[in-house]
TrEMBL record:
Its cofactor is Zn(2+). It comes from the Bacteria. Residues 18-205 form the Metallo-beta-lactamase domain. The lineage of its organism: Bacteria, Pseudomonadati, Pseudomonadota, Alphaproteobacteria, Acetobacterales. The keyword Metal-binding applies. Keywords: Hydrolase, Metal-binding, Zinc. This is MBL fold metallo-hydrolase. SUPFAM superfamilies: Metallo-hydrolase/oxidoreductase (SSF56281). It comes from Acetobacter musti. Coiled coil: none annotated. InterPro entries: MBL_Glyoxalase_II (IPR051453), Metallo-B-lactamas (IPR001279), RibonucZ/Hydroxyglut_hydro (IPR036866).
């Protein structure tokens, strides 16, 4: 008999950029983690409280405001409920520190004064593994959209938290001063496609897809 449990993954669109924040939880233990809480912290908290979840960690794929701008406030709100020191904030690769430190400046350009700079407890690096909800997640560094972008892979359920790397039918934008289009495609080809065609890709924007679908039909991967 297997006691392996499939995690619930819910998409919560946040910020005016409709960024997909992911709430991942184990139905048995009610422990959870959250990927890319860019904002709308009250909405995320309502969802956490509705299922009476205990959130152990917040993960950030990269330093853009719509992915990381709610992280600090979310942690404060969770710790007010669960206890101080109960939520670990796990960042992308350290190359994105400059972006995490400039969220407030970026957000001001959009009139989004509720988004804040984020200060992770730890940064991640290529090849790291994270133990979350008793399960192992692997970290891959996939620069191009931002220099420090990482993706988190759950091999057991075959789910990839892809941030702004690979989308349904397209890829992340690279028209920033620090973006690099060739590097992004190389990252996807070398680090994401080999994970397997059946892997479900949960992108930062838009609908989920699979690696197989994108390998077949994504025009940017030809
Ligand atoms: Zn981004």
């Amino acid at each position: 008999m297997s006691n392996v449990c499939r995690f619930e993954v819910e998409r919560i669109p946040v910020t005016p950029f409709h960024q997909n924040c992911s709430l991942v939880w184990c139905p048995q233990t009610k422990h959870a983690f959250i990927v890319d809480p860019g904002g709308d912290v009250e909405t995320i908290m309502e969802r956490v409280e509705a299922s009476d979840l205990t959130v152990d960690a917040i993960l950030l794929t990269h330093g853009h405001l719509d992915h990381a701008g709610g992280a600090g406030q979310l942690r404060s709100a969770l710790e007010a409920r669960q206890g101080k020191g109960s939520v670990k904030l796990i960042g992308p690769s350290r190359e994105d520190e400059f972006l995490l430190n400039s969220i407030e400046t970026q957000a001001a350009h959009f009139g989004l004064n509720d988004l804040k700079n984020a200060r992770p407890d730890e940064y991640t690096a290529d090849g790291d593994t994270l133990t979350l909800l008793g399960r192992t997640y692997s970290v891959s560094h996939v620069p191009g959209h931002t220099p420090g972008h990482v993706v988190f892979f759950d091999r057991q359920d075959g789910v990839l938290f892809a941030g702004d790397t690979l989308f349904r039918g397209t890829v992340g934008r690279t028209d920033f001063p620090y973006g690099n289009g060739k590097q992004l495609i190389d990252s996807i080809v070398e680090k994401i496609l080999p994970l397997g065609d059946d892997v479900v890709v949960l992108p930062g924007h838009g609908a989920p897809t699979t690696i197989g679908i994108e390998r077949e039909s994504n025009p940017f991967l030809r």
